[in-house]
Amino acid sequence: MVRVKICGITNKEDALCAFTAGADALGFVFAPSPRKVSLDQAFEIIRLLPPFVQTVGVFADSEIEEVIFFRNHLKLDLIQLSGNEDNDYVRAIGPRVIKSVHVTNGTEPVLDEHESATILFDTSCRGLKGGTGTTFDWGLAAKAAVSRPVILAGGLTPENVVDAITKVRPYAVDVSTGVEIKPGRKDHEKIKCFIQRAKTAGFDA
Asked: What is the 3-state secondary structure (H, E, C) of 173-198?
């Protein structure tokens, strides 16, 4: 069964809806974004989560010391790096790292330098490190998914997630914009629909 991450969580109500609907992971953005939360905001939400819901801290080109501090203070399960971090940076953060690769259609991404991380494929968009709301050529992610676990993001919605999973066969899918009313505020019916469709897409990762 494909795992589901709901990213850009900013409030308790959206977090409650996501984990009740069956989300495997919740993403908290600490990089510049309309969905950015503070350390204290994230703490207040995370402390309410039940066991086995994984928490992911999303950063972009932050100081390594800052990432490690946030991870330790919030007891984050995983770190997602969405900037221009190289493999030395990834290794310095430690284990259980997700590295975002921003894909430009027609250009095959270079993945060799990120062997120590799980790759998240997202859409390349000038000035944005995620939350673009647009898709890319899924064939580029499908090629990588043959040989390693990949996480698929970028423009996923309840309407296209089954098609995306069928074509890519990812380990997990990641959605933010596609289940929002507005940046930072989720549509609870879309969350439920997205998770239900992803979990019953007919592909066992």
From this structure: EEECHHHEEECCEECHHHHHHHHHHH
